[in-house]
Every structure is written in structure tokens, then in C-alpha cells.
Amino acid sequence: MSARAGAGPADGGVRAADEPRAGPAPLLSVTDLRTWFFTDRGVVRAVDGVSFEVHGGETLGIVGESGCGKTVTSLSLLGLLPRPPARIVDGSSIRLHGEELVGAAESRLRALRGNRVAMIFQEPMSSLNPVFPVGDQIGEPLRLHRGMGRTQARTEAVRLMREVGIPDPERRVDDYPHQLSGGMRQRVMIAMALSCEPSLLIADEPTTALDVTIQAQILELLADLRARHGMAVLLITHDLGVVAEVCDRVAVMYAGQLVETGTVEQIFTDAQHPYTKGLLGSLPSVGEPGGRLAAIPGTVPSPLRWPAGCRFRERCAWAISGCERPQELIALGEVPVAPSGEGPREGLEPGAPAEGSPQGGWTLGAPMAGVPPDRRAGDPASGRAVRCWRASEAAMTGRPWPPGGLFGQDDGGGESARDDGAPEARAW
Amino acid sequence: MVEPGAAGAGAPGGAGGGHDGAGGGQDEAGRGHDGAGRGRDGAGGGHDPGGAHHSRGGRFLSAVLPGLPQIMVGRMGAGSAALLTWTGMLWILVARGERVVAAARSGAWDDRLALATVVVGLLGAWLWSWRDVGRAGGEEEIGVSQWDLAVRAFARNRTAVAGLIVIGGLYGIALVTPLVAPHDPNEQLGLLTHRYLGLSAAHPLGTDHFARDVLSRLLYGARISLAIGFVAVGISVTIGTLVGAVAGYLGGIADSVLMRFVDMVISFPRLVLLITIIALFEPSIFLITAVLGLTLWPGTARIVRAEVLSLREREFVQAAVALGYSKRRIILKHLIPNALAPVIVAATLGIGNTIVLEAGLSFLGLGVQPPTPSWGTMVDDGRANLLGAWWLSTFPGLAIVFTVLSFNLVGDGLRDALDPRMRT
Questions:
Q1: Is B316–A112 a contact, with Cβ atoms under 8 angstroms apart?
Q2: Could you tell me if the ipTM is greater than 0.95?
Q3: CB contact under 8 A, A126 and B316
Q4: Which residues from chain A sit within 8 angstroms of residue B321, using beta carbons?
Q5: Residue A386's beta-bridge partner residues?
Q6: Which residues contact A265 (CB under 8 A, 6 or more apart)?
Q7: Bond before A402 cis per omega within 30 degrees
Q8: Which of A223, A401, B13, B277 has the greatest number of beta carbons closer than 10 A?
Q9: How is residue A89 annotated by DSSP?
């Protein structure tokens, strides 16, 4: 299978997003990232066309359930995946401060890692080298990237340990990892990551392995440090509670693609994608005790063979015919502005399904393509967007979504063949 | 590790030691023996649980007979090691005074090494005991590494500690042999009068067919055998660790090439290789050491590779990559120190094996060449007259047995102490 097989625009990439945009340059700009694993069993398209931007000082959360490609996305950013089998497919772009990282020399990436971009991992128990005192480990990036001497690095390590809230750092600096608790180890990891004052911190499930009390402390620490150092944070998590607590914006990921982006308020109060709704619906609530916890039925499909069309279709309560067509991440909320400024254009109404057309029964793509990127409000990479044709159509046309309410039955919001074998709507 | 610091308990014993210690510093050699007598009194007085360990008396006792306070509180291993070192080195200064002076003037490298060993031994034993006694209230629990934990686990293993003391003693004696040995190993004491003398005060282990003192030859032979074992294993561990770590971490083609090379070296019959190389070149100690070292490393390489393969999946290695460390730095600083535990065990056992192998080669006449003594050649020397002069082969044979046994005991002890299941 060729690397670009099936990777046409209709397959789900955000077209035209690599064109220049107006506004302040983002710190990190990921465009159409495809990280595929070329294995004996076939090509595992773990990350399949992901685009997002992180601006200086903001926290972007990437949320999704296990196996949806969150971690692979985060590891791809600094080229941390083993090659082979992993490969970032041609056409992907990762720009840090405008510098292209895909295909950059290993030595260049090394100079950035731990220095401009730092990373915190999920498992603090094994993320520290067991044979060296933690002070040495915090000081090592400083000695490597900043050329500090041993004593200076040690002094700095003590200062960092105090900053991340480790009590009695003058003594703890000589401790070995096994002498520290999980929370303390995660603080040490954070101190290591912060040592060179990175402009971007990637935190891959930083609190998953910790108990809830420590989790809250670590999140508070992260938010505090972010405010103090003005760094951006890319938080990878499956925990919407964590997202609500610390993130500015959220990107929901499913089956290797972003399915919805928006601010925390937008996602929590006005989720559009059925998957996001499902995630929110499966959060335990203090207010409604006793009931069964809602869950999204089924699991993430195999990345070896993503289903054609909407990848969430199999599990979606509102899937109808038409969902088998490939979905695009479409900016929401703001109606595209025409170049001449003449207001909303004609043709935004969903038309009749056109067999064979890549856009199917949905004509929105055509006028969008005519709009210059700098005039397009609500950019999918950093604004409000959803990858669900029914949701975006409903938003464009002001129809109720979901049809019949969150727990209601499908009222047939899409004119296109609602009764040709579409699965019965399932209420969560 | 932490002894109860019952301060007053050992007061009576401490007083005796204290009196002694006051004068002890002025004339080391003279009062050293004096101190030994009184020190035993002190030990008698300090029978009470807790002992004189941390008391003032313990300090004085330690100043005179380092190690004794530790023995009194039941720490046999460390205490007897210090005490043996101290008394042994003092004995050299007293009984071999004129040779020490001569060695200081001669400047030959093995004389210097021997003198340095004596000085280091004396200072080391004394300072260690002094500081150990002074550490009231036990260890700081800050900065206790995995190695510290392993050392503690090892110290609880009596047989292994005994083996370690034997090995330490052997290497210590090997280092100071020029000062200790009664005769030159190759000196022929008179072919007519001194051949095949049995055990006697003048020749504790007899003499051989060339009228050479067997004890002296045994001592010098220890240097050869132990040095060959140590250096050969040093070479093989260095090569094996690097090859294994590089192959394990890089994987892919590098791994395949390196490990196929390892397979190739392993599949060579080692003895045939050794015999061929030695037949091609003039047999010498350096050649034997080099050949042994260069053929033993594949085992280490496999151990390290296996260890690194599991280590590289650990998150701290991933974190090291994410911090921008180079492959070289990750291999040398982060992977190898973590993979060392099994290497140390293998190396300890390997020294024993190498000593046996060297003895075997020398026995066959392919190793160390006469007249240079090594345990293997000495066994061979005695072979011709085993019934008439049993001591010729017996003592070097016993030396080999006890040395290798000690290495194996220590190796097993290390394996237990470094067991990965012990780690957190």
C-alpha cells in the first residue's frame, strides 16, 4: 500500500490548512499529521490526518479513549517513535516557531528536545533512572543543553525541586527515585522537564498513574508553572475532568483523527460530535446518583482497517445513511465569509445526495473552497470545528442537533435516506 | 545496619582500650601488638548487648585495633576485614621492616605497588573503623541507592562475605608479595641440599625439584593467576558490555551484525583457538591474558544485550530521548549502569573460570612458561613425583580450589543481592 493511498483530501485531512494564515504565528502548528506504522500485518494508521495549533501560553488538551492515537500524536511531535516501524507520512507538517520538524535532522531534534520542548510521561514510577540520585537527573539537561557545571547544575536542581514543591530539596536532591513517592517522582519529572525553560511542555497523561489527591496537586502545579513561565502546554489525557480543570482549548480525538475542537466551554456546554457527547455522557456525575454509568458501546475500531466514511459510525446512535461517506473537520459556528464581503453565499443549504460525488449530498464544501484561507473564520486547526456532517449541517442550518435531543430518537434531521438500513438510534 | 547506640554499655572495656589508645599513636609498630592483648580484654568486657561500639571507648579501641569494635557488636565481615588488614600490614612493617626499607629505595614498580598497598591498607582500615565508630545513631536514610541496598543484602550473606574476605585477602597478599615472600620464587637454594625438602619451619610448604621454596612460588603464582583472571575478565567485560549495549539499544542491522559476530566467536572452540594462537606466537602472560579476554566477552555481550532490550522499553529511557540525550549518552550513562548487576555476577564467576582455564593451559604447558610460577605450572611440576613429594601439587591445587570456590560463593551472593526482584 502506498503511503498516500487513500489519503486524498476527502479522506479527512484539513485541506488548505498549510496555507499561510493571518494572526499571530502559532508556537506549534501541526498540519495533516499522519503517523503510520508499517507492520507485517499491514499499515497501522494510528494518526491519520491530525491538524491543530498551540499558541504561546495556552493549554490545549487532546482527549480520547485508549487507542485513538493521542500518545502517538504526542510522540510524533519530537520524532520519538521508533523508525521503523513508525513513519510520519509525506505531506505531514509539524512546525515549531515556524521551523519544520518533519524530516529535520536527528541532531536538530535532539537540540530541541528537553530544551525548547519538554515532555512528561504517564508513569512516574519508571520514568526516572533508578541508579542516579534525582538531583543528578534534574541537572543533566542543564549540563547538556545549557553547558552548566556540576555544582551549578546541582544548585539549579535544588531550586527547581523547591519550585515544583518538593519539601526539603537540599536533602532530597541526593535521594534515589525509589526513595520517593509517586507524586514526588512526578514532581521530579516536571522539574526535569522545566529545567531548560521550554516554550512547550507536552504532558502525556501526567496524572493517570496517581491517586486523585496527588492528581489535583500535580495539575495545580502544572497550571501554576504555566502561568509563571508563560509556556504552552499540550496535555494528552483521557480524563475530561482533567481537561475541564486546566485546559483552554480541547481537541477530541477518535480513531486517529480529531473529531471536534473548541474551547473548554464550547466542548462542555455545546458538544457537537456524537463521540464527544458520548464521552461527556459517560462522566460520572455527583448530581445524579444511583443510575447506571452511561458508556459508549463498542470499542475503537482496528487502526489496521479504519471503516470508510465516519469512523464513529458503528458506535454512533445517530448514524444514518450518508455517514459512510468520508467526513471532514469543518469549522463551525461562524458562517464562511465570501471574498467580496457580500455575506453568506447561496448554496449552503444541503442539497440532494449526489451519488459519486466525494461530498455526497452535502454541498457545503464547494463554497468553502472558494473562500481564501485568511478570510475564513473559525479555522479548524485552532477554532471550533467538528468532523460530523450531520452536526455541522445542523449548525449551519440552525436545525436542532442532535435530532430529538440528546436522549431522544432520530427525527430524521438529514433528508437523505433515513430508512435504508441505518441502525436504530441508540440512546446513551 | 543500624546498631543500637547504647553508649555506656561498654564502658569497662572501653576504659582499657582508652588507656592503650593514648600511647598507641606514638609508636604504631611497637604498640600494635601491645594493643592486641589489651584489645581482647576490651572485647571481653564489652560482651553486654550493644557493646562499646559508639562509646568513647569504642573510639579508642578503633584507633588501636580498627575493626574490633565492629566485631564486638557482631559485624563479623567488615570488622574482621579491617582487623586482618590492619594487623597484617602492621606485621609486614614489623617483621619485614628491612625489606620495606629496601623496597622504598628500589623503586621497582611491584615494590612500589606493594608499599602503596601497605599504606592504603593501614590508612583505609584505620580511617574506615574510626569513621564507622563515630557515626552514632546509624546511617542517614537520604541518598540510599540501589547499590547501597544490594550491599546491605550482600552483607547479610555470611558465606559470600567469607568468600569476599578470602578474595580480598588473596589480592592483598598478591599485591604485597615482594615484601612477604620468604624467598625469590626462582631462587635455587642449593640443588644438592635443598631438593624435595618436606614441610618445615624454614620452608612451610617445602621445596621442589629445583630446590625452590614452594611457599614463595605459591605467593608469586597467586599474583600471576589472579592478575590473569582479573585482567582477562576486565577486557571481556568491557568489550562485552559495550557490544551488548550497542546491539541491544540500536537494534536492527547493528544488532544483527554484532550478534552474528558474537555467535561466530562463541562457535569457535575456545581451547582449539587458544592452542592455535599460542602455538603461532611465543606463549607469554600478556598473550594468554589477551586471548582469554578476547574470547570470553560474547557471554557478557549476550547478558547485557538481553538486559538492555528490556531496559530500553522502560520509560526512563524514553524520557532520556525526550530530553534530547544522544544515543551515546543514553547507552553509556543510562543503560549500562542499569545493566551492570548481572554483569558483575557474571564477571565474578568468570574470574574463577578464567583462573581454572589458565591453570589448565599452564598445566598443559601452553600457558605461563617456566620458570615463572603460576598455580597451573606448579601443579604440573609436581605431577612427576606426586607420591614422593605430595606437597608440590597439593598446595597450588588447593589454592586454585579455594580461590575459585570463593569467587563462586561471592558470585552467588552477588546474584542474590542484586536480584532484580528486590528492586522497587
A1: no
A2: no
A3: yes
A4: 80, 113
A5: A260, A330
A6: none
A7: yes
A8: B13
A9: P
